[in-house]
Design goal:
The protein folds into 3 domains: 111 residues, Beta-Lactamase; 111 residues, 2-Layer Sandwich (Beta-Lactamase); 103 residues, Beta-Lactamase. Helices cover 25% and strands 28% of the residues. It is built from 9 helices and 17 strands. The longest helix is centred in the middle third of the chain and has 23 residues. The protein starts with 28 loop residues before the first helix and ends with a strand.
Length: 386
């Protein structure tokens, strides 16, 4: 068969460029058919009005129709009605010489959608006149479904992360942070765009940034978990102690994808730990009260040695129960530090155990905790003459 000069070019799914130029070369119809049917993509040639001039069987398979029904069929007949205008724009653009590939959704014969990647080029006759357009079609439906599933999964993650009470961040495989949840953004008072990349480092205390980078990079390069404490600036300008935990992320195939991290403000926890460490290693009794409820919030272990009974039995109970019944009249709340300043001392007999007396010294400055005033106090044994 004598074939006019035709060049077929386009990017195929396998990445191979299919192209051939035939100049007055006689090849058999059978050889031509084998070449066309061996191509893994659908081949579709239409005239300037979009009517089918030629197609291979793979093109018919993609459209879910019989190969014999393809001749004369309009390429716009397999387009969803609400996407027809977009299809016509792509068609006109290609006829004008713009051969950039694009992705599009087509309508199969059974009504189901099929996503295709399309590479098109104009087709010219022997004398250079444009006689139509040739397209190579690759079925990318599975890829599109996987992308949609990934977007849905990411949306679920964002919804979960944004409702979490802790700060959450995500990095890519290049050590660039790409996501921060609302808790993080509310804490720092900054936007997602400001924090992304290395922007988050602007909030780390200058004395902590070097150790932070070194710990993060060492763990990142080894693809291992890490934990670090650092100071991060809150929206009000105060630096807070943060416990940061990072865990590497891997795709289903095992490819390293970056890190996901969880940060917790431990400033108040550190204060409580230091308080307990001090209170539990001194001979004096240390306690803390809630003035709104008159409940004992904390009593140090020395209480049992001084009072002769378990501190646990008095927690969450009225502080007056710490005072012997015969001395309750002297245990006026006026000696508690709920006023602005001053130290308040009083003496209570030790409950029915010895002749020692117990000096209670309540100290103002316990501070507000969620709007509740919690004054501390220290007590020690004193001889009766004191």
């Amino acid at each position: 068969m004598q074939i006019a000069t035709v060049q077929l070019a386009g990017a195929v799914k396998s990445g191979i460029l299919l192209g051939f130029r035939i100049h007055n070369v006689n090849i058999s119809d059978e050889m031509y058919r084998r070449i066309v049917e061996a191509v893994p993509e659908g081949i579709w040639v239409v005239d300037p009005e979009g009517r089918t001039i030629f197609s291979n069987r793979r093109m018919a398979e993609i459209l879910g129709t019989a190969y014999e029904s393809m001749p004369g069929q309009s390429c716009f007949g397999c387009v969803f009605p609400d996407e027809l205008a977009d299809a016509q724009r792509h068609f006109a653009r290609t006829l004008a010489g713009d051969t950039r590939p694009f992705e599009f959704r087509l309508w199969r014969a059974d009504g189901s959608p099929v996503w295709v990647s399309i590479s098109c080029m104009p087709v010219h006759g022997d004398h250079g006149a444009q006689v139509g357009m040739l397209g190579l079609f690759s079925d990318i439906t599975e890829r599109k479904q996987a992308e949609a599933a990934l977007r849905e999964s990411e949306e679920r993650f964002r919804n979960m992360a944004d409702t979490a009470p802790v700060m959450i961040w995500v990095s890519d495989e290049n050590k660039q942070l790409t996501f921060f949840n609302k808790t993080w953004l509310n804490f720092t008072g900054r936007t997602m765009e400001q924090e992304q990349g290395d922007g988050w480092a602007a909030g780390v205390h200058p004395d902590d940034i070097q150790n932070c980078y070194e710990t993060f990079c060492a763990a990142f390069d080894a693809h291992r978990n890490f934990q670090i404490e650092l100071r991060l600036r809150r929206a009000d300008g105060e630096y807070r102690s943060i416990l940061c935990n990072g865990v590497p992320r891997f795709l289903p195939g095992g490819t390293f994808a970056g890190y996901i991290g969880c940060d917790i403000d431990i400033t108040d926890l550190q204060s409580e730990e230091r308080f307990r460490e001090l209170a539990e290693n001194i001979d004096q009794v240390f306690w803390m009260l809630d003035l709104e409820t008159d409940k004992v919030l904390y009593i140090s272990p020395s209480f049992e040695k001084v009072w002769g009974c378990s501190a646990a039995s008095y927690r969450d109970r009225d502080w007056l129960r710490l005072v012997p019944r015969e001395c309750e009249s002297g245990a006026d709340r006026r000696d508690l530090p709920h006023r602005a300043s001053g130290r308040h001392d009083s003496l209570d007999p030790r409950p029915r155990l010895s002749g020692l007396r117990f000096r209670r010294q309540a100290v103002p400055g316990g501070g507000n905790c969620g709007g509740r005033y919690r004054p501390p106090g220290v007590g020690r044994e004193t001889p009766p003459s004191a």
